[in-house]
Amino acid sequence: MDGLDQRIISRLVADARSSYSEIGKAVGLSAPAVKRRVDRLLDEGVLRGFTAVVDPEALGWGTEAFVEVHCMGNVTPDRIRARLLPLPEVVAAYSVTGAADAIVHLRAANIHHLEDALERLRAVDMIDRTVSTVVLSRLLERPPAPEVT
């Protein structure tokens, strides 16, 4: 990946609806050259796709929490993932270092919905205990962006 690829990615992160022509003008390439580079970045897995960024609060899912999950015994990340998949409130989960086996990001419609989701999470057979932190406000959230040289 070179500087032009990084600049193309930066443009796509800023506005994924930009046309190849618009991106080309910004980075000094023709639209077909930009398309070839984007296709290559997709093939290489650098770009994983294009998506709409939705405000969860606008959809009624404005309550969120981060939950430390502590499992009984040694549990593989794949097994944890498999047990979390059926819970629709789990929007992300991470294996981590430290005392917890995983950190789970939950989203819910309100505090009652969050409590219900936490109870269903705690009921998962391999989970020993959880430690929850409810989000009060989002201070910063930014998409990953390549260094532009």
TrEMBL record:
Signal peptide coordinates: none
Domain HTH asnC-type: 1-62
SMART domains with a match to the protein in the record: HTH_ASNC
Pfam families linked: AsnC_trans_reg, HTH_AsnC-type
Transcription regulation listed as a keyword: yes
Keyword DNA-binding on entry: yes
Keywords: DNA-binding, Transcription, Transcription regulation
InterPro entries according to UniProt: AsnC-type_HTH_dom (IPR000485), Dimeric_a/b-barrel (IPR011008), Tscrpt_reg_AsnC-like (IPR019888), Tscrpt_reg_AsnC/Lrp_C (IPR019887), Tscrpt_reg_HTH_AsnC-type_CS (IPR019885), WH-like_DNA-bd_sf (IPR036388), WH_DNA-bd_sf (IPR036390)
PANTHER family, alphabetized: LEUCINE-RESPONSIVE REGULATORY PROTEIN (PTHR30154), TRANSCRIPTIONAL REGULATORY PROTEIN (PROBABLY ASNC-FAMILY)-RELATED (PTHR30154:SF45)
Protein's name according to its UniProt entry: Lrp/AsnC family transcriptional regulator
Organism encoding this protein: Actinophytocola gossypii
